Input
Amino acid sequence: MIDRVVFIRYIEETEPPWDQGNVPWIVRMLVRWGMTILAFIVAKWFVNGVWDGTPIFLHGTDGYLVAPAIFVVVRAIFRPILIFLTCPLQIITLGLFILVVNALVVVLTEEVGDWFNVNFEIDGFWAAFVFAMAVSAVTFVLSRFLRRSPFSTRRRLL
Output
């Protein structure tokens, strides 16, 4: 059994310095928003390079700043609900249906962005699917590099 001291020690040793409890929440949100902005730029470049034409249209300041903010909010609100509603599909597909849920979050981000006239458009579900995979990969890599010791081996806590 894990006692409280080991759990707290685990959290303190594995959380990145910008995401610990002593850092103000606004700094944590700004770092995550910045990571998402960079992920959107890289994912747009990747998806537009894979397909002919431009299946991802992201243009202007509102497209590069507001669309990732909308994505963060939509992801925080709707992704847990979608995961809960698709729980049987998650079990049947051994968790691979989460990729479809991520693509649905991107499509929902485009729809919410249309309400605010944000220059963010996606041409089809498969472009959203690949875009969501690219955003996930870039944010994973960025969060890994922003940790205290990104290349160290995992430490045992006992």
User: Anything to note?
Assistant: Residues 25-145 form one domain. The chain is about 70% helix and 5% strand. The beta strands are 56-58, 120-122.
